[in-house]
Amino acid sequence: MKRLMFVFPHPDDESFACGGTLAKCSEAGQETCLICVTSGCRGRSGPFALDSREALARHREQELAKAAHFLGITRLELYRYPDGGLAEVDPRELAGRLASAIVEWKPHVVVTFPPDGVTGHPDHIAVCRATGMAVEQAEQVLPPDDWPDLYFVSIPHYYDHCPDKGPAPAVPITGKVDITRYRDRKGEALRAHQSQVYSVNRAYPGVMEGDYGVIGCYEYYTLVRSGGRPVKPVAPENGIPVMEW
């Protein structure tokens, strides 16, 4: 049975970036592990009157658990590092913890944000760096047959409905997953993050009201490491190919 590990800094990152892919993997009988590095205690609270960051963190963890249920996530791990402070965390420490999880669970695929973090968020960038280090550390322990492939996820349409723009793409996209049949599941997962209504409305207007028409039919990835070696991504000449895991 194929196992896929997704590593993101905040509750809701999984639904924005990979919700359809996670749901598709679940229906295919694959095991999925989501590692959420912070609990999002510095995010917005939306319509909820929460009186402390600790209360917001617990609330967002509950929302994440609900989203994970919609997406069929097999294993959810919460690391509870400081939200907004991952750039100050020793990347070797975080990488070591992630490497231990990789060695223990032996995923075939590891997915995280690209070096620009999609939005330029410092937490996203820090998790990208630590995850890359973790995969390399795990390769020092695991036999070659257990080395995972490392992919970056991109959200090329994230800013389509936003007045502002994100950073220039850090890497070219090399593959896309068809999530046409799983757009509703992605939408339900996004709706589970009610405290993040502002962010959801910016990227996916209408979703919080149950209209999933704005959700695209593909999610996008870049293979950057395989077989213990870095892979130099090259933009496809004839369109982005559909990939399967």
Question: End-to-end span in angstroms?
Answer: 11 Å
Q: Figure out the total of helices.
A: 6
Rounded mean pLDDT score: 96
Order of helices and strands: EHEHEHEHEEHHEE
Choose one word for the global shape.
Answer: globular
Q: Tell how many strands the DSSP assignment holds.
A: 8
Global structural class = alpha/beta
- Fraction in helix: 25-40%
**What does the largest sheet look like?**
8 strands, mixed
Enumerate the spans where pLDDT stays under 50 for 5 or more consecutive residues.
none
Task: Report the portion of residues in β strands.
Answer: 15-25%
Radius of gyration, CA atoms, in whole angstroms: 17 Å
Protein name: PIG-L family deacetylase
GO molecular function, one term: hydrolase activity, acting on carbon-nitrogen (but not peptide) bonds, in linear amides
InterPro entries: GlcNAc_PI_deacetylase-related (IPR003737), LmbE-like_dom_sf (IPR024078)
Organism: Brevibacillus thermoruber
Topology:
Layout: E1 3-8, H1 13-27, E2 31-38, H2 53-71, E3 75-81, H3 91-105, E4 109-112, H4 122-139, E5 149-154, E6 175-178, H5 183-192, H6 197-203, E7 218-226, E8 229-230
Parallel strand pairs: 1-2, 1-4, 2-3, 4-5
Antiparallel strand pairs: 5-7, 6-7, 7-8
